[in-house]
Amino acid sequence: MRVLVDHSGYELLNIGDIAMLQACVSRLKKLWPDAAIAVYTESPERLAQYCPGVAAVGPTVLGRRGVSAAPLSLQLAAEQAWKMFLPLVARGRRRCSAAESDSARILGAVRQADLVVSSGGGFINDVFWVHAAGVLGVLAAAQRLGKPTAMFGQGIGPLTHPVLTRLVARTMPRLLVVGVREAIGSVPLLVARGVPRQRIDVTGDDALLLAARPQRPPPGDAIGLNIRVAAYSGVDEHAARRAVIVVSEAAKRRGVPALVLPVSRYTGASDLESIRASGTGGEDGAAAYEFADLQSPQELVERAALCRVVVTGSYHAAVFALAAGVPAVCVTNSGYYDHKFEGLAALFPGGCHIVRHGEEFERDLSKAIDFAWDTGETDRDAVHAAALAQVAKGEKLYARFKTLAGAAAVECSSDNPDVSRPR
């Protein structure tokens, strides 16, 4: 059995992306203990660190002689374009060339795989449409070759980009199962583009598998903070500083520390560096903050559990908080994050408090922190129980995929004896 996994963060510099990939690999190994699992990545070293025993599938265009002198952004775009057009070169029964049979590159990996899946991510949307097009291209190529395909833990939308909309309508209805993070936005968008409703399951975020412990930890005595300064978040340095000042003041009023909960570790989009650059809310505020460069989902699990409330501009900092029964105050200034946080709030009633940047931002954020801080034990138990329920739904969906993949492979192999089937 050979399984190929495409995913949301090829450099493995985002703790949320890492957690979703680890959850997917763990569940696949549980279902197929003897499977050889391969993962597309731009960092084989980090893949070995986070998913030991998994084979790395490297880029085809990125860094190649003849294009290595081009700007990195252009190389990355060319790599995704190659993946987008894989269905055009992967079809047919002809024998693979030496290059195509190379399992260390994406086309060969697709050809040799028995199953092709995408682990969790928030990239099927207008903001990250280039990345989404590449992932959908890999899945479409697998479908051309008769391979069972699935996507898990997906956040869908906003979805208006014409190229991506067509790719979604062409590829996603042919998936055996589609696991989505939330129901409010994702389900209607997929149904409108031809995905049968019975193939869609709302399972929450796959990272919950790692973040949600069987027993809820007792509330901590800290305020967690994450700020995402990026074009897609709509939060700039000035907006970040406003949030940092409010959190600093809230922590000082209570005499508790503010714990920084970084998720993104990308150069130029580092949550840790964004908060450092925003100051700490005053000359005597520095002592209230505790900085740590978290490098793994396990570290984020432990740090989020030390908080009584988490203020975050990052989706996964909220997910890790909610998994521990810790209410999240979600700061947004873009339609992209509105979409993500509204869906999260629907899955965790009473656990998410959304605050948008505006003229009354400081007042609204302070009130939301006060309200979340006072959340009672019963409500915290309910938030934690919601996380465990979503983990169970994710387990069931993976198990259903195994059943459907086996049936689909038997049917496909009976029509085409050249197509290998899962064992």
Overview of this protein structure:
The chain has 423 residues and is an alpha/beta fold. The protein has two domains: 2-206 and 389-415, Glycogen Phosphorylase B (Rossmann fold, 3-Layer(aba) Sandwich), CATH 3.40.50; 211-375, Glycogen Phosphorylase B (Rossmann fold), CATH 3.40.50. It has helices at 15-31, 44-50, 72-84, 86-90, 106-112, 129-144, 162-171, 186-192, 208-211, 237-254, 271-277, 297-304, 315-323, 335-347, 361-373, 377-415, and strands at residues 2-6, 36-40, 55-57, 115-118, 121-124, 149-156, 177-180, 200-202, 222-226, 258-260, 265-266, 269-270, 289-290, 307-312, 328-332, 352-356. Strands 1, 2, 3, 4, 5, 6, 7 and 8 form an eight-stranded parallel sheet that branches. A six-stranded parallel sheet has the order 13-10-9-14-15-16, sandwiched between helices. Strand 1 (2-6), helix 1 (15-31) and strand 2 (36-40) form a beta-alpha-beta unit. Helix 3 packs parallel to helix 6 (129-144). Residues 417-423 have low confidence and may be disordered.
H/I helix tally: 16
CATH class of the largest domain: Alpha Beta
| End-to-end Cα distance | 6 Å
Domains, number: 2
Choose one word for the global shape. globular
CATH architecture of the largest domain: 3-Layer(aba) Sandwich
Return the structural class.
Answer: alpha/beta
